[in-house]
Amino acid sequence: MIIISLSITQDIRSITDLKRNTNSVLKQIHKTKRPVVLTVNGKAEAVLIDAKEYEKITNAFNLLKLLAPAEEDISNGRYKEAKEFFKEFKLEKEI
Hints:
This protein is α+β, with helices and mostly antiparallel strands. Helices cover 57% and strands 15% of the residues. It has two domains: 1-49, YefM-like fold (3-Layer(aba) Sandwich), CATH 3.40.1620; 50-95, no CATH class.
């Protein structure tokens, strides 16, 4: 499971701060593995995240998208118990 945490005292930074302290912000992101929210005029504008953490999140999201139709089938009763499935499979394949 991927859990994204955020420290409101450390992980919310202004664009100006990023411009002045780019290396420091990047080191923080790599060290903490937490995203940094960038603000413009006090409003959230963008989020910076470690590349490896981004890959993990993207992979988890893609897996979730693949599982969504199966969960919908189960919710709508479109499934068979394993015993029943294998019994039918063996009969069809003459195993």
